[in-house]
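MODEL INPUT / OUTPUT PAIR
PAIR INDEX: 1
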Amino acid sequence: MKKMLIALLSFLLLVLICLYIFIPRHLYISSSIGIDCSAAGAERTLLSEKKWEQWWPGTFEKPYFLLYKNDKYKIEEKFSDGVSMSMLTQSMNINSKINIVKLNVDSTKIEWNLAIDNGLNPFVRISNYLLAKKIKTNLDFLVGKFGSFLANRDNIYDISISKSLAPDSLLISTKTILNNYPSTSEVYDLIATLKKYATANNATVNGNPMMNVTLLDKQQFQLMVALPIDKALKGSENIFARKMVHGNFLVATVKGGISTVNEALNQMQLYFQDYDKTSMAIPFQYIITDRITEPDTTKWITKIYAPVYK
């Protein structure tokens, strides 16, 4: 009987020793994924609460918590390269951090790291070890979902950006300075001037109008409008002949009014910055919908062309 008791105690001691060796005081859990996107774009997406609502696979408990499989997640603090998050699971509040790591100009790694303090209680260590396995599974899934969201660049910029060539080559253009953002009628007044000039010089307009608005200062806007034509003209005092050099353009099609178009232009500029692209000239709007005959701005179709070096 005594030998059996000694053997049992020896076995329990061995189990306890193994427990403390193989389940350390601190359990470190990490999940990561590599994505083909810019680090800056990933950072903006991570810091945007609106974007979280688009990719998060769980639900929301307003105003603070994100829910996934009965666990609560809360963004505590935002940094330039990530966020710190608390996670409430099985009555345990765990601090974690999501980091954005730049690998290259067009590749990024997402890391989600946390640590669990096991203490000295062997039963707590076993419980936390099982909990850590569940957390690891959940983090792998959540990081994968976020990575899939980032892999589609449309989700980052809210527009679909593609590469194309210049739509036309021979142009006539004119410009004016305004004390307000150009109205539709002011844009089409310049278009009418160009059409009249083309007709007077036996030229045919063979494409849609183009326009660019440049903010000169807080109160002045430069409006430039151009029309593609079928032959070269000399121009006049306030009408200029242009020849668009065929090259690479980044293009996005936008549906909506002026604010939607301007936001798309801002996103296009961010795309240039994120991927270290060099712009060869100012971007312009290619007006698809006749904005005079269609007053409903939600139906306007506009293509944005931004000349790019490579």
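PAIR INDEX: 2
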Amino acid sequence: MGTNPSFLTRMSSNSLRRYALAVAAVAVAFLVNSALHPLVGDRVGYALLLPAVAFSAWYCGIGPSIVATLLALVGSTYGFIPPIQPFRVFTLAEFVRALVFLFSSAAIVAMGEARRRQNERLRNEQGALEKRVQERTADLDTANGNLRELSARLLQLQDDERRRIARELHDSVGQTLAALAMNLSAVRLDVERLTKTTHALTDSENLVRDMSTEVRTISHLLHPPLLDEAGLASAIRWYVEGFALRSKIKVELDLPENFGRLPRESETAIFRVVQECRTNIHRHSESPLARIRLRYRDHEVLVEIADKGKGIPPEKIQQLASTGAPGVGIRGMRERLRQLGGTLEINSNGTGSVVTVHLPIPETSSPAKALPSSSPAEA
């Protein structure tokens, strides 16, 4: 494998720059020394050269710092600024100063090189740490994606299971109970003359009717057949009537008469949100009134469910807005809507609560497409 010429050019340019900086630092030290020489003589010569060596060792590397040390030693001994004295004889004091300067420079160069290697090691460790963090982040994103897919699959399986149980209850147990009721009615006609058994048979017929009603109610609550057969509007009207009758809570339903069909997943999600909100109002809000409003505009279904109850405390609102605190019902509604691209908001002012749902609907599946006669304002 060949070496990249541009990389070599950059490396060469960088090395030349470091050597140039080291030489420039020594030159500046000599210029300052020359300027101060008339005032202080030779007493501060080496003292001014040591910062230049330290600068070279700190910022330029071991090679440039060695060059700077040698230039400083030669320059201070023979002089680079006229008059140059190439054959001057050293005195003992000058020799000792040069030796001290040489050892001091060697110590500075060693410390600078140690610092440079430590910084390089820290940079390498930081790079490795950042790489591990990126890998862990990628693994976490993958795990979150798998979790979201699993959650969507669980919700789908739950709806399918509810639909199957509702169908089985209606088709098997309901039919059996109806046949039993007819048999008991026939027996009752035969034994009406027996007054002692008439009351027991009447009670049995009532019990059978109650059981049939309960089975039918449970089947409809699990998954109302109207939701699949007649659509969301009919299912919500049926559910609201039953809810108002059972809970004694007045319900105002604002739903366009020509509200068309939506995709099955969207209709199921909206119906479950309405069902969960009505249950919460009955259990917690102590509200005598509830309002449900559905509208379709700009390829989006808007659902608003409000009550006039005691509201939700501010700390509970903050808890519901966080990711880890909502109850099972709220979490299920949000997850179901999120899988379809929708959102759920909960607001309360102390005199009631409002749950708002925004659920996007594909243009090909919009109620306006299903019912051409509906105007945009009504949709």
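PAIR 2 NOTE: The chain is about 70% helix and 10% strand.
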